[in-house]
Amino acid sequence: xxxxxxxxxxxxxxxxxxxxxxxxxxxxxxxxxxxxxxxxxxxxxxxxxxxxxxxxxxxxxxxxxxxxxxxxxxxxxxxxxxxxxxxxxxxxxxxxxxxxxxxxxxxxxxxxxxxxxxxxxxxxxxxxxxxxxxxxxxxxxxxxxxxxxxxxxxxxxxxxxxxxxxxxxxxxxxxxxxxxxxxxxxxxxxxxxxxxxxxxxxxxxxxxxxxxxxxxxxxxxxxxxxxxxxxxxxxxxxxxxxxxxxxxxxxxxxxxxxxxxxxxxxxxxxxxxxxxxxxxxxxxxxxxxxxxxxxxxxxxxxxxxxxxxxxxx
Length: 313
Description:
Protein name: Phosphate-import protein PhnD
Helix content: 40-55%
Shape: globular
Oligomer: single chain
Keywords: Signal
Organism: Andreesenia angusta
Mean pLDDT: 89
InterPro entries: ABC_peri_PhnD-like, PhnD
Number of domains: 2
Family: Belongs to the phosphate/phosphite/phosphonate binding protein family.
Structural class: alpha/beta
Number of strands: 11
C-alpha cells in the first residue's frame, strides 16, 4: 500500500513539473512570437515615393522605379514607387502619411507643405531655380504675343500644374488676358504636358502652355512636329519642381531618426555617383546632372500667386 502511495506521489510530482515546463515554454514561445512580429513589422516598413503624373505614365513608372531602386541601395531602406492617378491624389497621399517623398511641382509642393506641418523641400534641379513655361500655337495663326490669344481656343495642362497652369494663368493676367472670358470657349485642361502639345499639334486647340523642359525634350526626341506647332512666348523665370519629404515625426516613427538627412544626402550626391548606371539613367530622365539644395521659402512667390488665384487657402 505504501509503495502504491509513493508511486502516485511520484506521478503527481512529474505531472506538475511537465505542466510548469509547458507553461514556461508557452510563455517563451509567446514572447518570441511577439519579438519576431515586431522585427517583421519593422523590416517591412516601406519608404514610398511618388511623382506628379505630368508626362507619360510609362516613362514615369520606369524611371521612378529606378529612383526607388537607387534610394534603397544607398539608404538600406525598402523603397517603392507608388504611381498617382492625378496631382491632387499625390498631395492627399502625402497629407495622410502614405507618401514619404514626392517629386512635386512648385504648386503641389506648396499645397503639400500647407497641409503637412514639418514637410520640407529638400532638393531640386539647378534648372528649377530658374524655370519657365512656354506658350505654343499652331503655325499660320499670326500669334506673336500673349495678347494675340484673345478669341483663340486654348489648353492648359493639369489644373494643379505650376508650369502648365498656375504660372501661365498668372502671366496671361499680367498681359491683360482673362482665360475664363477671353478665349474661344472655356480653357481646356489636358492633364499633362505631353498631351498639351499633342492637342495643339493635332488642331484640337489653337494654343496652349506647358513645361519648358518637357517641350525641349519632345523636340529633341522628334515627338512633336515643329512645322505644325511651335513656341511663340517663354515666360520669365520662377522656382518650380522639387523633392519634398514628409515630416520628421512621420519618418522617425516608421524608419528611425535621421531618415530625412539620410535621404537628402543621397539625392544631393547623385551627381557625384558618376559610375552608377542607375543614377545616370535617373538623372538623364530628369534632364539634369545633379540635384541641389532648396528650401520652403524659395516657393513663397508660388504660394502668393496660388492664394491670389484661390488655388491655395
